[in-house]
Design goal:
alpha+beta; Rossmann fold; Dna Ligase, domain 1; D-amino Acid Aminotransferase, Chain A, domain 1; five-stranded parallel sheet; 20 strands; binds adenosine-5'-diphosphate; binds magnesium ion
Length: 451
């Protein structure tokens, strides 16, 4: 593998370029008109304009991207996350064109890309899934009947959904009736598929996920868990590893369930098995993400491995760099913060020009940024501008380190959630580590009440 095309943008494109440089692999970047000045375009060995700003006309142009890769003599394509990363058709066409898709097989992407299908697969493999419907629900009448069986509150979900989009909690029949059509419509608009299903809403649940990795020789390992329960709009904003307040026996069962899940589909490359864990540490499979995850640096911090390097190695057909589970250790504690160009009160994107960007004293802190000073955050893509990864011996120390860091960050020209992190890090609910997915919305409500 001498030349890799990165079918993505921003921080993840930059992240992949970094590992390719380390391994002396040439990189080809693609960019839309809006992204011409971003750092990843300069850092790649070559970069090509793929189209105008809208993703449908640029980053999602499957055939154009593959044609460019062929023309440039590329050996493999890395899809990053989001965009085409879970598009089985893309993966299949890359392989048909004689190149390597850096990810799982198109069949695995298909099976796991659909939440209903993956629930069925996991259930058959003996992995506990959230109680809910085994099939899609067609009509509101069916939904009401099923919800009575499951018991309210329920989560109404698009089978094809992702990024927190296409799901809503319904506390009663009235709420279900109100939302049924709109969730279907939204799912159709975002994901081109309006199949929905119902799950029991796990109250006070924690989102804990497991990083798994497989190769083409049948080896599968886990790289421990990440707690991603600090969320807004069902989207993660802070992730950490190890998960606080999680007894060792429960952790071991969870890690094993994730490995079983991966084995059930003969998994290859990087993947994440997401679970929702209740107050009694019972866990239920939510979904599997068949790609590198936004929050993979948390795992890199505690294990010391470069996950993109692992991806490239496995994609070449080599064995996993470590095949013996006991040789993978987790040390210390790591936290990741997603810095968004957004209004910290409404969580709406706040695009604009980054007039100044000063991270202050880094002191061993890792920043994966997609933008630099002078760049413009446009409304066309996800408004995440950077990830901050803080690592220390203990969780307490990591929190203090993060607090010190955030007090020196200065970003001007766009609104960001930096000040929110600074305050939230001091909240008892976060500090004591017992939090669940409601922690951030609840804390924000309290702040409002107190002022
Ligand atoms: P992770 O579990 O890695 O945090 P998410 O499921 O939140 O991943 O999504 C991964 C990336 O893809 C994020 O950057 C997210 O914003 C983006 N994404 C996912 N689905 C969509 C969508 N429908 N529209 C836009 N971006 C999306
Ligand atoms: P996505 O594909 O958008 O990432 P997920 O199924 O992974 O969708 O769910 C995203 C988040 O929504 C979870 O991390 C959790 O906070 C919440 N969630 C999803 N399903 C449930 C459920 N059944 N009960 C409670 N919370 C849920
Ligand atoms: Mg998810």
């Amino acid at each position: 593998m001498r030349k890799v095309l990165i079918a993505n943008r921003g921080e993840i494109a930059r992240r992949i370029i970094e590992t390719c440089k380390k391994l002396h692999i040439e990189t080809v970047a693609i960019y839309s008109e809006a992204d011409v000045n971003l750092p990843y375009v300069k850092e790649a060995d070559s970069a090509f304009l793929i189209g105008p700003n809208q993703v449908q006309q640029s980053y999602l142009k499957v055939d154009d991207i593959i044609a460019l890769a062929k023309r440039e003599g590329v050996d493999a394509i890395h899809p990053g996350y989001g965009l085409l990363s879970e598009n089985a058709d893309f993966a299949r066409k890359i392989e048909e064109a004689g190149m390597i898709f850096i990810g799982p097989t198109p069949e695995t992407i298909e099976t796991m890309g659909d939440k209903i299908g993956s629930r069925q697969t996991m259930k058959a493999a003996g992995v506990p899934v959230v109680p809910g419907t085994d099939e899609g629900v067609q009509t509101l009448e069916d939904a009401i009947e099923e919800a009575l069986q499951i018991g309210y509150p329920v989560m109404l979900k698009a089978s094809s959904g992702g990024g927190g989009i296409g799901m809503i909690r319904c506390d009663n029949e009235q709420a279900l009736s109100q939302n049924f059509v709109s969730v279907k419509t939204r799912a159709k608009a975002y994901f081109g598929d309006d199949v929905v299903f119902l799950e029991k809403y796990i109250s006070d649940g924690r989102h804990i996920e497991v990083q798994i990795f497989g190769d083409t020789h049948g080896n599968i390992v886990h790289l421990f868990e990440r707690n991603c329960s600090v969320q807004r709009r069902n989207q993660k904003v802070i992730e950490e590893s190890p998960s606080p307040n999680f007894p060792q026996h429960a952790r071991e069962r969870l890690l094993q369930a994730a490995v079983d899940a991966a084995k059930a589909v003969n998994y290859r490359n990087a993947g994440t098995v997401e679970f929702i864990v209740d107050e009694d540490n019972q866990f239920y499979f939510l979904e599997m993400n068949t790609r590198l995850q936004v929050e993979h640096p948390v795992t890199e911090a505690v294990t010391g491995f470069d996950l993109v390097e692992w991806q490239l190695q496995v994609a070449k057909g080599e064995h996993l760099p470590v095949t013996n589970q006991a040789d993978i250790q987790s040390t210390g504690h790591a936290l990741e913060f997603r810095i968004y160009a957004e209004d910290p009160k409404t969580f709406f994107p706040s695009p604009g020009n980054i007039k100044s960007l000063n991270w202050g004293s880094l002191n061993g802190i890792r920043i994966d940024a997609g933008y630099e000073e002078g760049n413009t955050v446009t409304p066309f893509y996800d408004p995440m501008i950077a990830k901050v990864i803080v690592q220390s011996e203990s969780r307490e120390e990591a929190i203090i380190k993060a607090q010190n860091f955030f007090s020196s960050v200065k970003i001007e020209g766009i609104k960001t959630n930096v000040a929110l992190f600074q305050e939230f890090l001091g909240a008892k609910a976060f500090q004591d580590g017992t939090y669940n997915t409601a922690v951030l919305p609840q804390w924000l409500d309290q702040q409002k009440g107190g002022k």
